[in-house]
Write a structure and sequence with these properties.
By secondary structure, the chain is mainly β. Mean pLDDT is 92; it is low at 1-22. The chain is built from one helix and 44 strands. The two termini are 20 Å apart. The longest helix has 4 residues, at 105-108.
Length: 570
């Protein structure tokens, strides 16, 4: 089998998964399916199309070594489960979607409804035409489900209690007769399209200079918004709704008032002509995708006391030249600074624990990064495509390099790995053309698929004895590699592991090696010397294909694949 010549390309198509809000994986606990967020250690009830009877959702679930707090019941989680008669929700729940119970036995049973409302453990799940036109949500209500009033044509006025802190996604969407709502000061967030298509949103008197404002909350904007927007309201704006400025092509400059404490999810999503944002010291959180694809954004200085910066917050902000992160930031989430090509340096907080997947991927002008000693997790593609990055020191707390962590960092010449590192992940240093210096710690037992592929300047590599796995294509196309001694515990050299190492001259097999897979050393055209052993059981197809200076060995009792030594000396 002839292995193809690798094409150097950072696989940014893989980064499409970064558009999800959290680092989420599927899990099952006591016959209920969940999505768990490994960054925040939270869980959401996922799709359970076969649910029936009565279900008790716990406050937390344990999956592997982690415990996750159950905080949400997801979109359509139990939709269509006609045999589902009851669900008991824990006090930890922070979000419920009305759609989670559409078509369930719970919603279809008329006795579960009271005066036009469906309640579940002090959570208002849904409403129907039997609701009072002027409705006061009772004190003691702890949540209103996303979409709870959606499409309700009866409701005209709503008063929310002080115990409610959030108006969720599409809660009052298409409530065409809704004319009045009282939003208490305890509301701290308003979801996207919470009032889209409602009577109150269609009231022109509620709009001022392109902004739709209820009480002291800015809900949405339209194309009448001025290019330079400064909040001027008799009552200071304290809250901006999610996606409030999304897709406003004319918006160029925004001054956020001191009364605002949060920039919510996707607040300035795809405002491609926005060049500068003044963020006051009062802001404590910046939500997921807050400035997503604001490609012309040059200035958005974050306050020192910022406590949380969401996933994809500055995704695609190619002109953002620098950013200083305050010491309260402990996690840089998924794709936070993806493709921020203007960055040259970034100061990371001293207490930083995690850099999640794709956090700095494609930041092609970053020259230097100092990772803090507190770091314990470095995610997939965290610095992939940082083509000017020269050197990196991985802190002691990091126990593995994830998939494609530094893929395509073409000028990275030195990587210092910590003692205690047990795995070098798939393609983690793939395409690091300038890599010359790297130490493999004594603790390492796995070198992943194509981990060092196309590291063209790598001349020497010390493979420590603990290594059990050298996977497919691990050192493929390491053109300057001259000598390899396989570690003592390795029993198998996988497919293409050292293929096209054209300057490899000497190969020392260990005493335990049993199998050399297909194409493992094919096209190693300088290979002259191999120290064979008696433990070897098989040599795969094309294993030493076109190793023209290697003398074809006479291996007794060894299964030799097709063309294993084709092109070798006789």
């Amino acid at each position: 089998m002839m292995l193809p010549v690798a094409v150097l390309a950072v696989n940014f198509s893989v980064l499409s998964f970064l558009l999800s809000v959290a680092h989420a994986t599927d899990a099952q606990y006591q016959d209920v399916h969940y999505t768990v967020d490994e960054t925040h250690l939270t869980a959401e009830v996922a799709l359970n199309p076969q649910a029936s009877g009565e279900l008790l959702i716990p406050e937390s679930i344990t999956v592997g070594q982690n415990t996750y707090t159950v905080v949400a019941v997801g979109d359509k989680a139990f939709k269509g489960c006609k045999s589902l008669t009851a669900v008991v929700l824990p006090k930890t729940i922070e979000r419920v979607y009305r759609s989670a119970f559409d078509g369930t036995g719970i919603m279809l049973t008329k006795t579960n409804w009271s005066e036009g409302c469906l309640w579940m453990d002090s959570i208002l799940i849904a409403t129907d035409k039997n609701i009072k036109p002027r409705f006061v949500v009772p004190e003691g209500t702890r949540l209103i489900a996303a979409g709870a009033f959606q499409g309700n044509k009866t409701i005209q006025r709503v008063e929310l209690p002080s115990c409610i802190s959030r108006i969720d996604h599409e809660t009052f969407r298409d409530c065409k007769n809704l004319q009045k709502i009282v939003i208490p000061p305890t509301i701290t967030s308003i979801g996207e399209e919470a009032f889209t298509g409602s009577g109150i949103a269609m009231n022109e008197n509620k709009w001022k200079k392109g902004a739709f404002i209820i009480d002291d909350c800015l809900i949405a904007t339209n194309n009448d918004l001025p290019a330079k927007y400064i909040f001027k309201n008799k009552i200071p704006i304290r809250l901006i709704a999610e996606r409030a400025f999304a897709n406003k092509k004319n918006l160029k400059s925004v001054v956020i008032p001191e009364s605002v404490t949060a920039i919510p999810t996707a607040a300035f999503y795809n405002c491609e002509n926005l060049t500068d944002v003044t963020i006051p010291a009062s802001v404590r959180t910046v939500g997921n995708f807050a400035f997503y694809n604001c490609t012309r954004l040059k200035s958005a200085t974050l306050p020192e006391n910022l406590e949380a910066l969401g996933a994809g917050a500055f995704y695609g902000c190619a002109n953002l030249s620098e950013q200083v992160l305050g010491e309260k930031i402990e996690v840089i989430e998924r794709a936070t600074f993806f493709m921020c090509r203007g960055f040259k340096r970034i100061k990371l907080p001293e207490k930083l624990r995690r850099i999640d997947d794709g956090a700095f991927a494609g930041c092609s002008n970053i020259e230097f990064v100092e990772l803090p000693a507190t770091l314990t997790y470095l995610g997939e593609q965290a610095f992939a495509g940082c083509v000017t990055l020269r050197k990196i020191v991985i802190p002691e707390g990091v126990t593995s390099l994830a998939k494609q962590t530094f893929q395509g960092c073409t000028r990275l010449y030195r990587v210092d790995l910590p003692e205690g590192l047990y795995a070098i992940g798939d393609e983690s240093l793939d395409g690091c053309l300038a890599l010359e210096i790297i130490n493999i710690p004594k603790s390492t037992f796995r070198i992943g698929v194509r981990a060092f592929r196309n590291c063209q300047q790598l001349r020497n590599i010390m493979l420590v004895d603990h290594i059990h796995l050298i996977e497919k294509g691990a050192f493929m196309e390491c053109k300057m590699l001259e000598e390899v001694a396989l570690p003592d515990k390795l029993e198998r050299v996988q497919e293409g592991a050292f293929a096209q190492c054209i300057n490899l001259q000497k190969l020392q097999l260990n005493k335990r090696l049993k199998e050399i897979e297909d194409g493992a050393f094919c096209m190693c055209r300088s290979l002259r010397e191999v120290q064979w052993n008696d433990s070897l059981k098989s040599v795969g197809a094309d294993a030493f294909l076109d190793c023209k200076y290697l003398k074809t060995p006479h291996l007794q009792g060894v299964v030799v694949g097709k063309n294993a030594f084709k092109g070798c000396r006789q």
